[in-house]
């Protein structure tokens, strides 16, 4: 859930350090609570909560990975995280404009693939050493 808060955490020795793999529509308990068509529950459109002061090192792939999104059948595929401003309406569930996602004071090093996912190399305020 992108609305969560990640502050002063360390992701060490895993596959990807911090991996945002959000489904398009809600699954499991969220599906029961909101239903499949409730745009307020679409994870890929939610604003990012706080992501600040985190470290990722010695992971097998990326330190910060926002890709390989979860499909409805549990597999993954290329996808995007596009946070939007509300309100969300049934006829146009994508909100009223894009929001920036801020990953601040993030340090990534000694990750075998990329410290950041390839599409994230232009993120502002990210400190990365390979």
Explain the overall architecture.
The protein starts with 5 loop residues before the first strand and ends with a strand. The chain is mainly beta and 130 residues long. The strands form four sheets. Strands 2-5-10-11 form a four-stranded parallel β-sheet, with no helix packed on it. A three-stranded parallel β-sheet has the order 1-4-9, with no helix packed on it. The chain has one helix and eleven strands, in the order βββαββββββββ. It is globular and about 45 Å long.
Structural class label:
mainly beta
Shape: globular
Number of strands: 11
Kindly report the spatial arrangement of strands forming the biggest sheet.
2-5-10-11
In angstroms, what separates the terminal alpha carbons?
Answer: 28 Å
Provide a brief overview of the structure.
This protein is mainly β and 130 residues long.
Provide tags for this entry.
globular, 5% helix, three-stranded parallel beta sheet, 130 residues, 21% strand, 11 strands, disordered C terminus, four-stranded parallel beta sheet, mainly beta
């Amino acid at each position: 859930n992108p609305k969560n808060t990640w502050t002063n955490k360390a992701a060490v020795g895993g596959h990807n350090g911090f991996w945002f793999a959000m489904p398009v529509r809600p699954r499991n308990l969220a599906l029961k609570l909101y239903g499949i068509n409730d745009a307020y529950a679409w994870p890929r459109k939610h604003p990012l909560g706080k992501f600040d002061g985190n470290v990722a090192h010695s992971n097998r792939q990326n330190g910060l990975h926002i890709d390989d999104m979860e499909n409805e059948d549990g597999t993954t595929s290329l996808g995007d995280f596009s946070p939007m401003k509300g309100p969300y309406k049934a006829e146009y569930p994508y909100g009223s404009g894009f929001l920036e996602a801020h990953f601040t004071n993030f340090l990534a090093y000694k990750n075998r693939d990329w410290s950041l996912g390839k599409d994230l190399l232009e993120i502002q305020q990210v400190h990365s050493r390979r």
